[in-house]
Amino acid sequence: MEVQKEAQRIMTLSVWKMYHSRMQRGGLRLHRSLQLSLVMRSARELYLSAKVEAHESEVSLPPALPSDPRLHPPREAESTAETATPDGEHPSPEPMDTQEAPTAEETSACCAPRPAKVSRKRRSSSLSDGGDAGLVPSKKARLEEKEEEEGASSEAADRLQPPPAQAEGAFPNLARVLQRRFSGLLNCSPAAPPTAPPACEAKPACRPADSMLNVLVRAVVAF
Amino acid sequence: LKCTEKYIYYLSFQSKSDIISTVEFNHTGELLATGDKGGRVVIFQREQESKNQVHRRGEYNVYSTFQSHEPEFDYLKSLEIEEKINKIRWLPQQNAAYFLLSTNDKTVKLWKVSERDKRPEGYNLKDEEGRLRDPATITTLRVPVLRPMDLMVEATPRRVFANAHTYHINSISVNSDYETYMSADDLRINLWNFEITNQSFNIVDIKPANMEELTEVITAAEFHPHHCNTFVYSSSKGTIRLCDMRASALCDRHTKFFEEPEDPSNRSFFSEIISSISDVKFSHSGRYIMTRDYLTVKVWDLNMENRPIETYQVHDYLRSKLCSLYENDCIFDKFECVWNGSDSVIMTGSYNNFFRMFDRNTKRDVTLEASRENSKPRAILKPRKVCVGGKRRKDEISVDSLDFSKKILHTAWHPSENIIAVAATNNLYIFQDKVN
To answer: Residues B429, B421: contact at Cβ < 8 Å?
Structure first.
C-alpha cells in the first residue's frame, strides 16, 4: 500500500513537472521530457505491480478457511470497491465468479472495451520487491495494447496539433490542459517515450489507461 | 607536470556576475572565458609575472566583457530562445587576435577579441571629435598618424552559425584541423566549416522516424584532440559512441560503443535517469575518455568498450536520496568534469559548493569547498568531508545539512599548471596551488 501510494505520488509529481516544463523559457526540453516520461512509466509499473501483489495476497490469504464460493465473490467485490478509486465514473465491479484480480483500472469508462477476462497468469516472483517492477514486462498490458492500437491513430491525429502555449494565454486552464493530455494518454498506443515534434510539444508516456490516472487527473482538477 | 599530492590550493581571485553557465581556459591558459545566463561573456587575462611581485604568480583580471547572445523569439514555433551561453570553446591562437566560439540553445557565434592600443589622429576632413569640417576652412594637408591610446579590447562577431538546430544545442567542439567544428543538439550533430555560415553538414542523426519510438538523446559530444576524423558522443542511456568520419558521410553507425553492464544491486526506481551522461571529455593524450553521470565519474580506455577502467564515486551518499532529489529537480543537474594537464587528476563538482578531485595514480581524492565564508584569499583550502551517518565528527557536514541550491556544475583546469576555475552559481573562484 505504501508502495502504491509512493508510486502514485511520483506519478502526480511527474505530471506536474511535465506540465510546468511547457511553461519554461526556452521551450520544452526533449531530454527532460524523456526523463520525466521514464520516471512516470516506472512509477506506473510499480503501482500496477504493487496493486496486483496486494490483491493477490488478499486472494491467496485464507487457504485453510472453508472456501465457500458464495463468500468469496462478495468479499472480492468489497475489496475491489475499496481499492477501486473514489471515482464516480466506474461502476462497481461485478462479483467475479473466478478468483481473479479484477483490477478496477480496467473498467475505465474512457477506454476502448477491454477483454472481459483478465489473464490469470501470475506475475513472476521477482516482482515481489517493488524495485524490480520496472524490469518485468507486463503481459497484461501487451494484450491490452494490441486492442488499443486501432483506437490510437485517430487520437494521435487529434493530438498532433495542440495549440501553442501562448495561444491559451499566460495561465492556461490546468484542468483543461491535463484532461486533454490525459484523455490522449488513456486511449493511445503503447509507445513509452514522449513524442516531440520540432514544436517541442512532448507528449506524456503512452500506456493503456487505468483508473489511477483518472484519479490523478481528478486530483489535479481539484486544484 | 608533477601531480599535487596534497591538493593544497588557495583562492587567488573571485568575481560576481549573473549565474555562470560555462567556464573555459584557452589553450595557453593565459585567458579564461566565462559565459552566463544573461548571454554575456567575460574574459579574464592572467597578469604577466613581474620580477617584483613573484609571489603573486600571475593573477587573473577582467580583460573583456561583451554581450554574445540576446534573447530571441521563434515566431514560427511561438518559443522564446534563451540567451544563456551553454558552451564556450577557444580556437588556438594564430595571430594577435583571440577567437572563441560561444553558443546558446540555437545559434553558434565566432567572436574575435582583439586589442587596440593606437588610433589615427590628424584627419583632414574631420576634426578630433569626428565632425566633418567645412572644406572651405582647410588650407593645408597632412598625413594622419597613429598615436598610442589607452588599451581597448574589442570583441566583434565574425561569424554567426544559425538555423541548423531544431533541438537545443548542448555541445560544441573545435576539430584538431582548426578548420571545422561540430555542434550537437539532442538528436543531431552538425559539422561546420569556420568560413561557411549558411551550410552545415549533418554527421549524426538519431531522430527516429516515429518520435514515439524515441528512447535516448545525445547529451554531449567532443572531437578527438589529435585525430581530426574521430569524435565521441554520449547519450542519456549512459552509453558512448565513437565515430570515424572516414567510414561514412552519416556517422549513424558507430565505430566503437562503450557501455557498462548495469549492476543489478544498484537498480532503483531512478536508475535510468541517473545513468544519463552529462559530460564527456577526451584526455589530453587522446587515449582515454571521461564521462560524468549523476553519481559517478568514469574513465574509459578507448581500446576497451565493455566497461570503464576506473569509476569514482562523487557523492554516493545521495543514492538513498534520489526521490527527494527528483522532487527538487536536482536529479536533472548536469555536472561537467575536467582533466588536469597531465591527465593524472580529474575534477568534478557536487552540491554545497563542494568540488571533488581524484588522483588517478595514488587513488586519493579530496573534497574542497568554494565559498567566500570558508576561503579567504591566500588561505589554504581545507579539505571537507561529508558524514554519511553514525557519529558526525567536528568538521564534518551531514548529508541532510547539504545545501542543494549551491551546486558546482562548471569547472575548468589550466592546460599546464595547477590553476583551477570553479563556478559556484554566480561566483567565479580561481584557485592556485601553493608554491613552496
So the answer is: yes
Q: Which residue in A16, A22, A34, A44 has the most chain B C-beta atoms within 10 A of its own C-beta, making it the best mutation to test that interface?
A: A34
At B13-55, the pLDDT tens digits run 777 779 999 999 999 999 999 999 999 999 999 988 766 655 5
Provide the ipTM.
Answer: 0.89
Domain ranges of chain A: 1-58
| DSSP 8-state assignment for residue B342 | T
- Residue B244 pairs in a beta bridge with B230
pLDDT digits (tens, 9 = 90+) for B340-371: 999 999 999 999 999 999 999 999 999 999 98
Distance CA B314, CA B274 (A): 13
Spatial CA neighbour of B92 closest among B23, B22, B194:
B194
pTM above 0.80, yes or no: no
Alpha carbon of A196: minimum distance to chain B alpha carbons (Å) = 6
Across the A/B interface, how many CB contacts are shorter than 8 Å?
Answer: 98
Q: Does A193 touch chain B (CB under 8 A)?
A: yes
Side chain identity, residue B324 = S
Pick from B166, B212, B332: CB nearest A32: B332
**Fold of domain B1-111+160-430:** Methylamine Dehydrogenase; Chain H (2.130.10)
- How distant is the Cα of A86 from the closest Cα of chain B, in angstroms? 26
A197 touches chain B (CB under 8 A): yes
The reported pLDDT for the residue numbered A135 is 46
Q: How far is B277 from chain A (nearest CA, A)?
A: 11
DSSP assignment of A67-106: --TTTHHHHHHHHHHHHS-S-TTSPPPPPPSS-----GGG
For residue A12, what is the nearest residue in chain B, using CA coordinates?
Answer: B327
Counting Cβ atoms within 10 Å, is residue B365 exposed (0-12), middle (13-18) or buried (19+)? Answer: middle
Q: What is the pLDDT of residue B215?
A: 95
Q: Mean pLDDT, to the nearest integer, of A183-199?
A: 40
